[in-house]
Every structure is written in structure tokens, then in C-alpha cells.
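#lab-general

N.A. 3:47 PM
ok so I finally got the sequence cleaned up, no stray characters, all 170 residues accounted for. can someone with queue access submit it? mine expired

B.Y. 3:52 PM
send it over

N.A. 3:53 PM
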Amino acid sequence: MIFTHSHFDHVGSAAAIIKATGAKTYMHEADAKIAEEGGGFRTMRAAPGLLQRVLFRIFWHPNKRFESFHIDQTLKDGDVLELVGGFKVVHVPGHSAGHIVLLWKEDKVMFAGDIGTNLLSIGDPIGFENEKIGRESQRKLGKMDYEAIVFGHGRPITSNASEKIRRVWP
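B.Y. 4:20 PM
back already:
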């Protein structure tokens, strides 16, 4: 299981899945401690915008705990995981200090986690641990080329994805 970051909506069921399947786990080194301790989230603030502020109030619970689990391999920017055709790891902090995106199939598909959302349109995540760094990471995503992008929250974009992202995060 490759985790884009350690927020509970992305790792909350991980321990049960690992127990049931014996899956190996991968996460950026900056977020691995949170997974292994079952919480202890860093401070996060709502992203600008009404939708983000509303969703942040509904879904962000910094004291929420989850069953901890071991990270078998920590990741860093530039790593390549030789799984199902190869995943390139790109570190994109901001939403979370250890947030990563994954490029798959010779840079054709981007697994974007929560660097942003595609709920009503392409936009910010519900919050940032560090908005300034998050904006730099979004611009980094805008400089990359990929055909499709899949978000942790919202609809995928299945064609010309990098062009569409550049319009929002040049």
C-alpha cells in the first residue's frame, strides 16, 4: 500500500487491510511517524474559499486517532518503486509535510492524493499545514507532464490533464 500522506481519511483503515492481506507499506519519511503512532497530526488551517472552509470544519479532526501500523519502506523525492510498471515518487509538501504524488506508466498517470481536489472544479485541498509551501508544490505539479490525474477527493481527469492543471496552477 502506497500512501500519499498520513491524514486519517487516507490511512484510517490501513491497519485492518494490512492484517487481512499482509500488504507492504510505503510512505514519505516525514509522515511515517504519524502512521506508526496512530495520529498526532500537525496543525493545519483551512484553505481559502467557502467550500474548503466548510469541508474543513466538517472533516478535519486533529485529535482523531486510528490504529497504528508499521511503514515498511519510507520514501523520498525521486524514488522509483518497481511495482506494477513503476511509480516515480514526487515530494509535494504543503497539505502535509510528507505528501507525495506518484507518476505511473511512463509519466502518463498522476496519483495526486490531496495536493488539490476536483470536486466542483480543480481547486485546493480542504487545508494546508503550510499554504506557501503547498502553493509551490501545486506549481511544481503544473510544470510536469501527464495524460491523466486521479485525486484523493473528486473526479479524475482522463485526458490532457497536465494542460488543465497548468490553467489553475501555472
